[in-house]
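Reviewer comment 2.1 asked that we show a complete input and output for one of the modelled complexes. We chose the adenosine-5'-triphosphate case, as it is the one discussed in the main text.
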Amino acid sequence: MSTQTEQNKKTVIRRPGFSFFDWLGSLGTEDIGIDLGTSNVVVYVKKKRLVYPESSAVAVRVRTGEMFAYGTRAEAMEGRTPQSIRIVHPLRDSAIVDYGATAYLLNSIINHSYLKSMLFHPRMIVCVPAGVSGVQRRAILEAAVTMGVRKAVLIDQPIAALIGMGVDTERMQGAMVVDIGGGSVNVSVVSRHGMVVSDSTYEGGLAMDQAIMTRVREKYKVQIGRPAAESLKKQLGILWDMSGVLQAGEAAGKSLESGLPVKIGVTGEDVSNALRPIMQVIYKKVLGVLQKTPPALLADIRDHGIMLSGGCAQLWGLDAMITKVTGIPAYVVEQPMYVNAIGAGAALDYMDYMRDSLQDLH
Ligand SMILES: Nc1ncnc2c1ncn2[C@@H]1O[C@H](COP(=O)(O)OP(=O)(O)OP(=O)(O)O)[C@@H](O)[C@H]1O
Ligand SMILES: [Mg+2]
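Response of the prediction step:
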């Protein structure tokens, strides 16, 4: 993630690299919305409308097990550390796989930002993917306890997303949200009564990066790292031939033949071909959910359009392809990577009426 600060409407995006003084103004804020993702954790500070994203990564000393860095700083160390240091991703396929590292990550983010002293015991709403297991819910709540929160509520991600998009969830008939994140793709149809149909696949952004790495290795006999593959994915997307001009990106890697560093040109066609099998899975999931959707909701879904959220929603050409495959206009929502956390934050207004999920721990 870049280090610049963005101003979008009333929401301020605080990226890593902020100064402590930036945060002084938000002292006293007590409520937070959190989107805990495989690639990114996004914290939304309600009172100041601050969005604070961090990479979901923790650096660990192998010998002692000590966790000493987190977020974007830990992510940047990946592939560059001595053997004595390991970079851990506490979530895989949108599920917590390392509880200790998750708690460390969340605690570090909160302690490093505005709630340094933990005196304020925040209330928080955490987005969870539709269909998350009871064990996972418990894991998130236990992490919340270590953060000293005084009340925690779990909310379904697609519902948070709709609130974040400003949809009037009390009045709408039906809406379709496709969240294409790093570790999973979640396709959901929501009515004003809650989740109606959903399906998911773990073929998210990380699987896309792997597919690009494999393609480059097979075609060019060059090994590139995941960040290089991710960068090609962001630059080239899936519709290389849309403008009729063959687009290309450059990637640095290691020649499998000579073992030496090389730079190669990778075309949009390469990336598009690499991603095609994953895209087919995504289209199939979207069509499958539409087929299972009650007819009464379809008209409203058509009116709203299919809403694409998550980082990979920004893949060049994806909205056009989903529109083509389904015949329903699909569009990328504003701030696709932050909309869940923003929606969770907006739902904090109703928190007084929501049951405290921490009670489930007893
Ligand atoms: N401009 C872009 N174009 C394409 N992909 C992008 C872009 N920006 C970010 N991504 C991808 O988005 C993914 C991260 O998205 P997001 O933050 O929504 O995932 P997450 O919420 O952490 O994961 P999940 O919800 O699956 O647990 C990464 O794979 C990243 O490469
Ligand atoms: Mg996500």
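The first helix runs from residue 20 to 24. We note this here for comparison with the apo prediction described in Section 3.2.
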